Amino acid sequence: MKLENKIWDKSECLSRDEIESIQVQRLRETVKRVQNVPFYAKKFKELGIGPEDIKSVSDVKHLPFTTKTDMRENYPLGLMAVPKEKVLRFHGSSGTTGKPTFVAYTKNDLEMWSDMVARFLYSGGARPGHTAQISFGYGLFTGGFGLHYGLEKIGSSIIPAASGNTRRQFTLLQDLKPELLVCTPTYALRLIEYMEDEKIPRESLNLKVAFLGSEPWTEEMRLYIEDRLQVNTCNNYGLSEVIGPGISGECVYHTGMHIQEDYFLVECLDPKTLEPVPEGELGELVITPLNKEAMPMIRYRTRDLAYIVKDSPCPCGRTTKRMSRIKGRSDDMLIIRGVNVFPSQVEEALLQCKDVTPNFLIVLDRPGSLDRSVVQVEMSPAFFSDKMSEMQMLKTNLEETIRSYTGIHFEVDLVQPQSIERFTGKAARVIDNRPKEK
Ligand code: ADP
Ligand code: ZN
Q1: Judgement on whether residues 354 and 319 belong to the same structural domain of the protein
Q2: Considering the domain boundaries, does residue 254 fall inside one?
């Protein structure tokens, strides 16, 4: 099913010079704005830098970084640059990596946010007149409301289903016939599983595009979801500290996620040296939002690892730089017997084999002096009922495939269908019982 390419906003198609001149001007304004935040005022004073020193985009390299720890140390609202009366909304990070942190939005921030969400939704095929089912959690999490207001801006009608209650999700999908679905890739898997278990005919749904994001997923997972759900899928990226979803998103050509460069300056740096890595090489994304009022940020270290796509035009006509999928967070990276492994590599390996489901759980411990890595993998219902005699062969094959993807030996523990926890939001795929390093 081919989707039509259309552009929402002409600022997605500016020349490099035009983009950079917007970025420089907005960066200067941002540096001016953060002088209202004691944390930044102090840092800039120490560095002896002011707005007048920003003469080109590359001057961003002289500016200080902001980390999650800085946010925690200024908890709850120490990084706010406007009085609280100017705030129209608060959100919080979902707390994947510890205590939640709060973020705040002024009226302008909310308008800008829905604008950027509208752009990526439109670029992926959402249109006025479409109906969208939002199966993201609504609440402190930025996903639900972020997508909601972007869809509203486009003029799509919204079914605010929220996450969970899979049976009811299907009632809505079948009776209200939305063309668009918004959820995490993990929840898309759960919907597929439910549809297959309950023998719900695909023809009873009217889905055309699923906008998936908020956690890492792989190209293999895209094929799996597109094939089973018979939809186009579009990836989109964001994080609450910077604004929420909307930093970047895929157009219908799936050439990487277009970065909304008039709103964000995105650097890709070596996480150790903090020097830029060349385009095409994996690094940590460091993001400076350029227009935010309530909680401006300078060079936020996302810990997300991705690369900037090497300079090549996208057939859609947008001129913005594109970023790859997020390979993982540096916080997610496991070091097993000295080798760096991302859970997404295990996912890629498992999706090569049709006798298992993509639900898995990595369990690590260290019974003696060596790490023990086990991955629990669910057999597919068909394999479980017909081919149990081939279990040993399946286990050996999977162990080999996983080794080829990760470089290390995982012992595969084949478990019964439905025995691994299902998630309605972001999945948790690792239990690490190893003693903490001192
Ligand atoms: P938390 O940090 O508590 O999870 P958020 O809900 O703001 O808070 O999550 C943002 C994080 O989710 C990002 O930093 C990134 O790690 C992950 N993420 C968001 N979108 C994607 C995506 N499309 N692909 C991979 N990871 C994503
Ligand atoms: Zn494109």
Answers
A1: no
A2: yes
Q: Domain check: are 265 and 151 in the same one?
A: yes
CA of 249 to the centre of ligand 2 (A): 9
Question: Is 237 a pocket residue for ligand 1 (Cβ < 6 Å)?
Answer: yes
Taking the centre of ligand 2 as the mean of its atom positions, its distance from the CA of residue 132, in whole angstroms, is 22
Residue 409's CATH number:
3.30.300.30
Residues 369 and 296 in one domain: no
Task: Judge contact between 49 and 64, C-beta under 8 A.
Answer: no
Residue 50 CA: distances (Å) to CA of 32, 111, 366, 371: 7, 28, 51, 50
Whole domain around residue 311: which residue ranges?
Answer: 10-15+102-329
pTM, two decimals, is 0.93
In a domain, 417, yes or no: yes
Residue 240, ligand 1, Cβ within 6 A? yes
Q: Which ligand is nearest to the CA of 250?
A: 2
Cα–ligand 1 centroid distance for 47 (angstroms)? 31
Last residue of a domain, one of 287, 302, 329: 329
CA distance 404 to 5: 38
Instruction: Tell me the ligand closest to 218's alpha carbon.
Output: 1
User: Is 29 within a domain?
Assistant: no
Cα torsion angle, 247, 253, 255, 261, sign: negative
The total of structural domains in the chain comes to 2
Model pLDDT for residues 56-85, shown as the tens digit of each residue: 999 999 999 999 999 989 999 999 999 999
Task: Tell me if 216 CB under 6 Å of ligand 1.
Answer: yes
Atom index in ligand 1 nearest the CA of residue 326 equals 25
Q: How would you class 277 by CB atoms within 10 Å of its CB: exposed for 0-12, middle for 13-18, buried for 19 or more? A: middle
Q: What size, in residues, is the chain?
A: 438
pLDDT for residue 438 is more than 60: no
pLDDT computed for residue 86 by the predictor: 98
Q: Which of 99, 120, 215, 243 to mutate for ligand 1's pocket (most ligand atoms within 8 Å of CB)?
A: 215
Domain boundary pick from 302, 329, 356: 329
